[in-house]
UniProtKB/TrEMBL annotation:
<feature type="binding site">
    <location>
        <position position="294"/>
    </location>
    <ligand>
        <name>Zn(2+)</name>
    </ligand>
</feature>
<dbReference type="GO" id="GO:0009086">
    <property type="term" value="P:methionine biosynthetic process"/>
</dbReference>
<dbReference type="GO" id="GO:0008270">
    <property type="term" value="F:zinc ion binding"/>
</dbReference>
<dbReference type="GO" id="GO:0033528">
    <property type="term" value="P:S-methylmethionine cycle"/>
</dbReference>
<feature type="binding site">
    <location>
        <position position="229"/>
    </location>
    <ligand>
        <name>Zn(2+)</name>
    </ligand>
</feature>
<keyword id="KW-0808">Transferase</keyword>
<dbReference type="GO" id="GO:0008898">
    <property type="term" value="F:S-adenosylmethionine-homocysteine S-methyltransferase activity"/>
</dbReference>
<keyword id="KW-0862">Zinc</keyword>
<keyword id="KW-0479">Metal-binding</keyword>
<dbReference type="InterPro" id="IPR003726">
    <property type="entry name" value="HCY_dom"/>
</dbReference>
<feature type="domain" description="Hcy-binding">
    <location>
        <begin position="2"/>
        <end position="309"/>
    </location>
</feature>
<dbReference type="InterPro" id="IPR036589">
    <property type="entry name" value="HCY_dom_sf"/>
</dbReference>
<dbReference type="Pfam" id="PF02574">
    <property type="entry name" value="S-methyl_trans"/>
</dbReference>
<dbReference type="InterPro" id="IPR017226">
    <property type="entry name" value="BHMT-like"/>
</dbReference>
<dbReference type="GO" id="GO:0032259">
    <property type="term" value="P:methylation"/>
</dbReference>
<keyword id="KW-0489">Methyltransferase</keyword>
<feature type="binding site">
    <location>
        <position position="295"/>
    </location>
    <ligand>
        <name>Zn(2+)</name>
    </ligand>
</feature>
Length: 316
């Protein structure tokens, strides 16, 4: 039985954290850099640890590490050796573990809570490109190419001490297939897959989310399947579509609904997550069992989920 299944035997909903980069920017960090939030692993690691702690205090049952944009190729461009890159990736996991362990060491934090998990982020190939292609998936790469890219980082993070891997913002089926094949090389490592989506039924590259969910329904190491960094308006429909094709727990952590412009690294449009808890209640009713936030969500959004958890009886 996976850690996710164990928690879901105790409570019906698992609350994830929210955006990391958003909080770093709110606290004065300049993330206009190809490394994005991973830049702060170099410049201000203590702030990353503090944001993890803030999400735990807000009510998160899972915190996701700052590894999303930390790749060997990306760090090499910054002049880092392979050894230095490994140290930075491990540091990201260690910061989350330290925040989790400090939180859990306080008896008052254990009341009505499960011991939080740390998920090590595996961002898509498009995150390394820093051109928004994680929302398109138009790489033109084969499964073999993508395995070559992902294998070194996955090997580091599989042994870094996290509870599981969060393979997230996956825009195309071929990349998920590459990651699924790589997981078999690390058979004791659990993971979830979450795709980015362009509408209520298709992931970013145009494949049906139902087809993607079905493709991995029997993968023994996958503990959840779903979507992230997708507008809230699409989430309920995507949950229904995924739920129709898999028996695995459904994970969703949408962005605010704003649109990312990779050209000038800015968000535009209006946020549609003002009543996040009410939306989350709808997603839960549709079948999601792991719910959190992605870009432009904050500890306040996660606190609203925890408040909902306390109002609505999600316990078995």
């Amino acid at each position: 039985m996976s850690l996710i299944e164990t928690i879901l035997q105790q409570q019906k909903l698992i609350i994830l954290d929210g955006a990391l980069a958003t909080e770093l920017e709110r606290r004065g960090c300049d993330l206009r850099d190809p490394l994005w939030s991973a830049k702060m692993l170099i410049e201000h690691p203590a702030l990353i640890r503090q944001i993890h702690a803030d999400y735990l205090a807000a009510g998160a049952d899972v915190v996701i590490t700052a590894n999303y944009q930390a790749t060997f190729a990306g760090l090499a461009v910054r002049g880092m050796s392979g050894v230095q890159a490994v140290e930075l990736m491990r540091l990201a996991v260690q910061l989350a573990l330290e925040a989790r362990d400090a939180f859990w060491a306080e008896p008052r934090n254990r009341v009505g809570r499960v011991r939080p998990l740390v998920a090590a982020s595996i961002g898509p190939y498009g995150a390394f490109l820093h051109d928004g292609s994680e929302y398109r998936g138009d790489y033109g790469l084969s499964i073999v190419d993508l395995k070559v890219f992902h294998r070194p980082r996955l090997a580091v993070l599989a042994s870094a001490g996290a509870d599981l891997l969060a393979c997230e913002t996956i825009p195309c089926l071929v990349e998920a297939q590459a990651l699924a094949e790589l997981l078999s090389e690390f058979p004791t490592t659990p993971a979830w897959f979450s795709f980015s989506a362009r509408n209520g039924s298709e992931i970013s590259n145009g494949e049906a989310i139902a087809h993607c969910a079905a493709a991995f329904d029997h993968h023994p190491q996958l503990v959840a399947l779903g979507v992230n960094c997708t507008p809230p308006a699409y989430i309920e429909s995507l949950i229904h579509a995924a739920r129709s094709s898999t028996s695995k727990p459904i994970v969703v952590y949408p962005n605010s609904g704003e649109v990312w412009d990779a050209t000038d690294s800015t968000w535009s449009g209006e946020a549609s997550c003002s009543d996040f808890a009410a939306q989350a209640r709808t997603w839960y009713a549709a079948g999601a069992q792991l719910i959190g936030g992605c870009c432009r969500t904050t500890p306040q959004h996660i606190a609203s989920l925890r408040q909902l958890f306390q109002i609505v009886d999600f316990r078995l």
